[in-house]
């Protein structure tokens, strides 16, 4: 039997995966996050999803996209618009968690993002996601992630 903590972890993992799809849809269609969330709740099996966390991610990423992109842009080797759309959505979701959810350990955020990139991203996209988010964690959570990188 899974412990309550284990169920919570799995439910958050499912929330992140569903949120990736929703944020990707938002990036590609510019639909309102509320409409996308409603569509997911009506058309997807959300039984194993932490729906509160899903809601927060689906609304939080678009609401803070300028801030998130500003965190990410200096760490990338190309303009954010040229990053694969799936990987862009993963980076934005993880940046949101790193910035807005300090109670979630940065290693959890990175590991979840890399796992999602392996599932949904380009062949070596998980490496790009990992390297970018590792650098971002050092800037947003210097004490937890081992300090800022040298300039």
Describe this structure in words.
With 151 residues, the chain is an all-alpha fold. It has one domain (4-145): N-utilizing Substance Protein B Homolog, Chain A, CATH 1.10.940. 72% of the residues lie in helices and 0% in strands. It has 8 helices and no strands. It has helices spanning 4-29, 33-43, 51-63, 65-72, 85-100, 106-120, 125-140, 142-145. Helix 1 (4-29) packs parallel to helix 3 (51-63) and helix 5 runs parallel beside helix 7. The longest helix has 26 residues, at 4-29.
List the helices and strands and how they pair.
Blueprint: H1 4-29, H2 33-43, H3 51-63, H4 65-72, H5 85-100, H6 106-120, H7 125-140, H8 142-145
Helix pairs in contact: 1-2, 1-3, 1-5, 2-3, 4-5, 5-6, 5-7, 6-7
At the fourth CATH level, what is the homologous superfamily? NusB-like
Estimated structural class: mainly alpha
State the helicity in percent bands. Answer: over 70%
Number of domains: 1
User: Could you tell me the strand content as a percent range?
Assistant: under 5%
Quickly list its features:
0% strand, globular, single chain, N-utilizing Substance Protein B Homolog, Chain A, disordered N terminus, mainly alpha, 151 residues
Condensed summary:
The chain has about 150 residues and is mostly helical. Helix content is about 70%, strand content about 0%. It has one domain (about 5-145): N-utilizing Substance Protein B Homolog, Chain A.
């Amino acid at each position: 039997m899974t412990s309550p903590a284990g169920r919570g972890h799995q439910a958050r993992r499912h929330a992140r995966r569903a949120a990736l799809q929703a944020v990707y849809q938002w990036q590609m269609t510019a639909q309102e996050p509320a409409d996308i969330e409603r569509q997911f709740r009506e058309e997807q099996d959300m039984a194993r999803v932490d729906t509160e966390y899903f809601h927060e991610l689906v609304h939080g990423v678009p609401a803070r996209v300028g801030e998130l992109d500003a965190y990410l842009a200096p760490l990338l080797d190309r303009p954010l618009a040229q990053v694969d759309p799936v990987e862009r959505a993963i980076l934005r979701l993880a940046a949101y968690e790193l910035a807005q959810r300090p109670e979630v350990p940065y290693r959890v955020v990175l590991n979840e993002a890399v796992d999602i990139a392996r599932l949904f991203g380009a062949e070596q996209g998980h490496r790009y996601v990992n390297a970018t988010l590792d650098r971002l964690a050092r800037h947003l959570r210097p004490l937890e992630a081992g300090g800022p990188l040298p300039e």
